[in-house]
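Action item from last meeting closed. Structure (189 res):
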């Protein structure tokens, strides 16, 4: 678990306020350079107009990152077709290429460690006009969890089920008490 920068007590990944001292855990520190994650069909460096969803990588296992250090920007219109999150495997026939590929980030942060993320772990899609996450793997190979902004608990998303996303929610891919990747959802109208 990460520790509060003020009182150094542990807190849950994605928590916004320290339950021990009340410190703002959501205040982003200065970021040297934003690294954009590749999203198939989205050209990096373009200014996207219209509604979009931004995913900030805020944690990988015990490591935490400030919002804006690693992020992916996806136009909401693109979610009409599910945007799969996972890691590529070019040895498969046909090759597996998720639209949001975490392979390079995981290899950079944890070189030589087998990634906890499945090749096709989850998918972002529209549900009644709003963004949602769909779990693509079952509990034996990894799970998908969501912690809504107004809650302090992660709840699992059953395989092939959809969970609506709200601004500032946290998506956790993996095990909340073990190996995982945490993503903060920012909805930009």
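Sequence:
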């Amino acid at each position: 678990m990460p520790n509060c920068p003020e009182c150094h007590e542990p807190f849950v990944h994605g928590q916004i306020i320290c339950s021990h001292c009340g410190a703002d855990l959501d205040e982003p520190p200065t970021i040297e350079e934003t690294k954009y994650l590749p999203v198939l069909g989205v050209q990096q460096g373009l200014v996207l107009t219209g509604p979009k969803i931004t995913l900030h990588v805020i944690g990988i296992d015990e490591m935490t990152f400030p919002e804006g250090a690693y992020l992916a920007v996806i136009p909401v219109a693109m979610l009409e077709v599910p945007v799969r999150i996972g890691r590529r495997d070019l040895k498969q026939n046909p090759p597996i290429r998720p639209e949001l590929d975490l392979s390079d980030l995981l290899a950079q942060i944890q070189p030589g460690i087998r990634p906890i993320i499945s090749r096709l772990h989850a998918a972002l899609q529209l549900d009644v006009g709003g963004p949602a996450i769909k779990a693509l793997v079952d509990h034996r190979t990894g799970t998908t969890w969501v912690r809504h902004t107004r809650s302090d608990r992660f709840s699992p998303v059953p395989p092939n089920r959809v969970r609506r996303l709200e601004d500032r929610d946290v998506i956790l891919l993996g095990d909340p008490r073990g190996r995982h990747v945490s993503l903060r959802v920012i909805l930009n109208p």
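Note appended to the action item: The chain has one helix and 13 strands.
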